[in-house]
């Protein structure tokens, strides 16, 4: 019996070492493939042209920084019963560029008039809700865009309720008036 025991142990050791060698080879091969893929990816990101200068990766060009045009604070009587409530509204317009800001400034008296008319049609209950403020902002966006030749479509639910006919076609291209932001909103 003693002669069979050492032979069995010596047979188990080479089998275990072969498994370890195979596992080690697979791990090394996997690391080489992953490292090669990472090196290829990084070399594509930081490509070098023929002159040896780094070529920037093709990325989306950053959007131009918006231009913000603050309007003067406006105080307007609200459409509540008795006419005792009023709102003080600060508005800042987010525009595509300074050229648009100059164009909006040229039309500012008519824009302010339109905004005051829009706000005076609202009640304090409407303007106290987030939805009411968002609706007012959408209406102001439409009012600011109109003198520039852009028509902003009204919300579908409002068109259906009002029975409005389709608006005339507006200028081609994206509206340079991006958003209407409230910088102050006080209702008393």
Number of helices: 6
CATH architecture of the largest domain: 2-Layer Sandwich
The helix/strand order is HEEEHHHHHE
Instruction: Determine the N-to-C terminus distance.
Output: 104 Å
| Uncertain runs | 157-170
Q: What portion of residues belong to β-strands?
A: 15-25%
* Structural class based on helices, strands and sheet pairing: alpha+beta
Based on DSSP secondary structure assignment, what is the total number of beta strands?
4
Shape: elongated
CATH topology type of the largest domain: Tetrahydropterin Synthase, Chain A
CATH C-level class of the largest domain: Alpha Beta
Helical amount among residues, as a percent range? Answer: 40-55%
On the 0-100 scale, what is the average pLDDT?
Answer: 80
- What is the CA-based Rg, rounded? 34 Å
* Number of spatially distinct domains: 2
- What is the assembly state of the chains in this entry? single chain
- Profile the largest sheet: 4 strands, antiparallel
Short description:
Helix content is 48%, strand content 15%. It has 188 residues and is α+β, with helices and mostly antiparallel strands.
What does the model show?
A hairpin with an 8-residue loop joins strand 2 (74-77) and strand 3 (86-95). Helix content is 48%, strand content 15%. The protein folds into 2 domains: 1-59; 67-187, Tetrahydropterin Synthase, Chain A (2-Layer Sandwich). Strands 1, 2, 3 and 4 form a 4-stranded antiparallel β-sheet that branches. Helix 3 (108-120) packs antiparallel against helix 5. The protein is α+β, with helices and mostly antiparallel strands. The chain is elongated and about 100 Å long. It has helices spanning 4-45, 98-106, 108-120, 124-127, 130-145, 156-162; strands at residues 67-70, 74-77, 86-95, 177-187. The chain contains 6 helices and 4 strands.
């Amino acid at each position: 019996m003693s002669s069979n025991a050492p032979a069995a142990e010596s047979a188990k050791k080479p089998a275990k070492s072969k498994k370890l060698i195979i596992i080690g080879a697979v791990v090394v091969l996997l690391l080489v493939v992953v490292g090669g893929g990472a090196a290829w990816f990084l070399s594509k990101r930081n490509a070098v042209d023929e002159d040896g200068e780094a070529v920037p990766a093709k990325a989306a060009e950053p959007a131009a920084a918006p231009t913000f045009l603050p309007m003067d604070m406006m105080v307007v009587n609200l459409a509540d019963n008795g006419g005792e409530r009023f709102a003080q509204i600060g508005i800042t317009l987010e525009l595509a560029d300074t050229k648009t800001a100059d164009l909006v400034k040229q039309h500012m008296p008519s824009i302010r008039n339109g905004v005051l008319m829009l706000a005076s049609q609202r009640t304090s209950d409407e303007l106290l809700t987030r939805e009411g403020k968002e609706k007012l902002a959408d209406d102001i966006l439409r009012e600011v865009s109109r003198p520039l030749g852009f028509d902003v479509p009204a919300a579908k639910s409002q068109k259906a309720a009002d029975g409005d006919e389709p608006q005339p076609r507006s200028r081609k291209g994206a509206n340079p008036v991006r958003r209407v932001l409230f910088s102050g909103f006080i209702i008393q």
